[in-house]
Amino acid sequence: MARVPLRTPAEVGPEARVVLERIAGDRGDLPRVYASLANSPTLFMRLYAYVEGLWQETSIPRTLQELVILRVAQRMGSDYEWGRHRLLAGRLGVPNEQVLDLANWTSSPRFDERERAALAFTDAISSAGALSDDAFQAAGRIFSPQEVVEIAELAAFYVGLARGLAAVAVTLEPGFEQLDGTKAPG
Question: 44 and 104 share a domain?
């Protein structure tokens, strides 16, 4: 059970209500992540605008973005982000074989050079401690400075989001796949 109320559109002001209703309409449900963030309507709207920018206004292909997000979910132990993005990744064309091999991406033949570089950078970003110069330089050999910034921000955002969801104990909606491959209980 979440440690904060899961807000409905009816429980927030008109500006946040419009955004929550649009999210629910686009997805067919209101994901708990947004219902929990709506406890702070202004913060919710700014975070949602930021994540939409990460998804839609960067040069990183959506399939690569989803691999980064799923890898962060694995590293952070986030059933929530795994379950929601596992479904989305499939819809966007990420091959199921890649998702199944993601935990072992370093030895899997299913990832190309750019995917490997992004996943290595993601692993470094989602590790404890400072990012090494070597990890940064390795990403810079494959990606442009713009792409490096975009991957770094995407990975860092989802590290923070995973920690925030854990802090307020937001659980995955029933029926979505958890990290262990089972479905979230209803």
Answer: no
H-run or E-run covering 164: helix 145-167
pLDDT grade for 186, boundaries at 50, 70 and 90: confident
**DSSP string of 72-136, one letter each residue:** HHHHHT-HHHHHHHHHHHHHHT--HHHHHHGGGTTT-TT--HHHHHHHHHHHHHTSSSPPPHHHH
Show the domain range for 141.
62-167
Q: What is the pLDDT of residue 81?
A: 97
Does 88 fall in a domain? yes
Q: Does the pLDDT of residue 68 top 90, yes or no?
A: yes
Report how many domains make up the chain: 2
pLDDT tens digits, 77-106:
999 999 999 999 999 999 999 999 999 999
What is the model's pTM?
A: 0.95
Kindly list the distances between the CA atom of residue 15 and the CA atoms of 10, 42, 100, 140, in Å, as whole numbers in the listed order.
11, 9, 40, 40
pLDDT (tens digit, 9 = 90+) per residue, 140-164?
A: 999 999 999 999 999 999 999 999 9
Same domain, 77 and 51: no
Gyration radius (Cα) of the chain, Å: 17
46-50: long-range contacts, CB 8 A cutoff, minimum separation 24: 48/19, 48/23, 50/157
For residue 71, which of 134, 123, 128 has the smallest C-alpha distance? 123
